[in-house]
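Why this split exists: single-chain examples teach little about how molecules sit against one another. For that reason, every record in the complexes split bundles all components of an assembly together and asks for one structure covering all of them. Below is a record exactly as it appears in the raw files.
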Amino acid sequence: MKYVDEYRSEQLARNITEEIRRIQTRPWVIMEVCGGQTHSIVKHGLDYLLPSSIELVHGPGCPVCVTPLEMIDKAHAIARRTDVIFCSFGDMLRVPGSEEDLFALKSRGADVRIVYSPLDCLKIARANPDKKVVFFAVGFETTAPANAMAVWRAQQDCVKNFSILVSHVLVPPAIAAILQSPQNRVQGFLGPGHVCAIMGYHEYEAISARYSVPIVVTGFEPLDILEGVLMTVRQLESGKAQVENQYARAVEREGNRPAQTLVSEVFEICDRKWRGVGSIPKSGFRLRYEFRDHDAERLFEVEEIDTKEPAICISGQILKGIRKPHDCPAFGTLCTPQTPLGATMVSAEGACAAYYAYGRHLKTGENSHVV
Amino acid sequence: MCLGIPGKILESYESQGLRMAKVQFGGIVREACLQYVPEAETGDYVVVHVGFAISKVNEEEAARTYRLLEEMGQLTELGAPEIEEKSRNGRSP
């Protein structure tokens, strides 16, 4: 596949890691922000290709992971209703709520459907006028334009039986929260390529300047990630702290203006709770008042649900790059993708689930980089 | 979740008031919305996320990046001298 295969060349990967070895003089801790990058790193073993004194820590950029448990429970309360067709991306179906997951609900007769795009839900709503079609709108800035378009079209076309349950989160406030933590170890960031394809990267320039930290907007293929690491190490070694764009084939500084325009027409910024992390001010989107007729949380009046996370789970510290999956006594034993205890195990893009999927629970200690 | 896959636009058309396209990813063809990439035309590559093209692939940038990566290898193969030999036993700042 063009623009995929050539970014997986083993020889070029070796060229980049050789260059990193050549310029590196001291250990560095670099965080990849996006869960897709984490998955690519663990899948291709990119952290093993790097010098052991470059430590990659895994960031909070997995929206499925950070969706709060009470929001999952709200989704289930709505999906249980007989007058509802509940639609979701496939990766939310296995995420357990306090009682069960959406697959279990579906097997007991709830009308739960996996969709490829939010626009599919509009088709389902048009075809089922006697049902209420609800879409579980989870995601970062990358997904917001798709959800905004579905709501905007529904409003334009008077599709009254379509609503979304919004659990949208934003990357820059999470990066700022990590940098403000007294326990922070992160010295440079691989920025989230597709989030920046939408939003641009001017917001990250303010963060980079304020906290004196290099941020390299990075893609998702192995060569993208390795080049992102090289660019970050170059900055760190030369004492620079600025935003650079490794993923220039897909990202422009100003981002995607038409997408930003519709997103800000449909959504507004609000405080959001992140699973494992807690509440972060101004870190998410909610629907604007003008679109309240498509707001599932309002329409179904789901009550606040009190939930508790297991005390043993350290996912909050993993999401902030303070600890690694192997530091958790429950990893791979009590806590597996089939029986996840917390945020980083519930989705394939979570650090714990990625480590588990690629057998790292069998090799305890191998990934313990010396810093 | 933020998965974005580059694909080639085979044809574009209007559907329910939106500009849509058939986009080819390797051997698979799927529908994607082009509303957010008004400049994209048949034959262009776009990055698609949850059924929406979110950016048009900049072919010049792609070629430039790739050339840099290849040149890096040539330098290594030529045994390019290190400009400055530094200790590798540094400490964390």
